[in-house]
Amino acid sequence: MNKSLKPIPVPNDWDRRGLPGWTYHSQALFDLECNEVLLTHWQVAGHVSDMPAPGDWLTFDFLDERALIIRGRDGEVRAFHNLCRHRGARLADGEAGHCKSAMVCPFHGWVYNLDGTLRGAARPETFGDMDRSKFGLKPLDMEIWHGFIFLRFREGPQPSVAELLKPFDADFEAYRASELLPSDALGHWTVDPLPINWKSMRDVDNEGYHVAMAHPALQDLYGRSYKDMIFPGGISQSIAEYGDQPGRLWSVRNYVKFSKGRDWLPDHLRSSWTYYGIFPNSVIAFTPEGAQYYQDIPHSLNQTEMSGRLYRRPHETREERAARYLAYRIDRETSVEDQQLSIWSNESMKSSAFDDFHLSDLEFGVRTHHDRLRALIPVMNLDEKPSEDALITVNEELRSAGAKTS
């Protein structure tokens, strides 16, 4: 981590309320969040090691958008909208694959080169005087940072990924993130959509106050040292060191036993689990044995999928492989626990007895996440919900009033 960047201190006196409950169950607000937050901010879509050879491709579906990421014959990785320019068919179907020299649309057979240019349309004589150069795949805004592939579907308020995550540049360099390889046995994972609003999962993941009570394995592993740090720009770091005790639980005890000998890592990362949060909905996490990213992908107002990919280190030993599996086992148990907490929290906001959150200093990350949402969508500052029909108008009025007074 950049030593010159200081975490945002928790104020002595701060508003401990969270977002009002109505913001988790309004369709009009969810539509605003999709258009003004989720689609305009960076999303992690994979790692360059997921597509090592020319012709390898990944897809990434998000809300109503779909992306195709492909490595060209020149070795470059590019991202496009996964839509044929003829009728909009899905050019690549599935999570990942390989094509030899071109992508062929399964609908009518239009052929695209690996750089996205249109090689040719089937029955070209039926299209009149068509300029092929105007019908290449539409590119997406993409950045590769320490091997991780970031996309956004619309221009937004975030700076470049390199600038946004610069405070963590030294850590990712130390972790040799660009050298990661796909986890051979575990790989891409998803959790069936949960009956929650996407913010409910973020609320659970944005604080460690619940670790001691809700996560026995994490508490056994590192709960004594866990801390959250919030930084400007909508990024955060959670870090905890393990190994000060052998562990009571089987998975923890054996993980501590096998996870040793990372002399190439700096002291603060050698025996740590670290989580790097990226507003609004993504996390990249490292253990000494490997890494993963995960994100909350809304399917609708109250349906949210958790999804991510796991990575390993090249040339891992048997002990490292065992530790990586045990880390996955601990993390899987933790995820199941968080899913249930998210469901309970989300459903509580429909109750007439729900007043508001009253946040601990250890939950300051929840508040800062909410504040960033409020800044982008001013109507979220209102305690009382506007009518669904008027919500967009009220939001624009509040935005205009804020612009005039700022």
What does this structure look like?
With 406 residues, this protein is an alpha+beta fold. The chain folds into two domains: 1-37 and 183-406, Naphthalene 1,2-dioxygenase Alpha Subunit, Chain A, domain 1 (Alpha-Beta Complex); 42-178, 3-layer Sandwich (Rieske Iron-sulfur Protein). The protein contains eleven helices and 18 strands. It has helices at 27-36, 161-164, 169-174, 198-205, 211-214, 216-222, 250-258, 267-270, 318-348, 364-376, 391-405; strands at 43-47, 56-62, 65-71, 77-81, 96-98, 102-104, 111-113, 118-120, 141-145, 148-152, 181-182, 188-194, 227-231, 235-241, 272-278, 282-287, 290-300, 303-312. Strands 11, 12, 13, 14, 15, 16, 17 and 18 form an eight-stranded antiparallel sheet that branches. A four-stranded antiparallel sheet has the order 4-3-2-5, with no helix packed on it. A three-stranded antiparallel sheet has the order 1-10-9, with no helix packed on it. Strand 16 and strand 17 form a beta hairpin. Helix 4 crosses helix 9 (318-348) and helix 7 crosses helix 9. The longest helix has 31 residues, at 318-348. It is globular. The two termini are 33 Å apart. 38% of the residues are buried. InterPro entries: Rieske_2Fe-2S, Rieske_2Fe-2S_sf, Ring_hydroxy_dOase_asu_C_dom, Rng_hydr_dOase-A. This is Aromatic ring-hydroxylating dioxygenase subunit alpha.
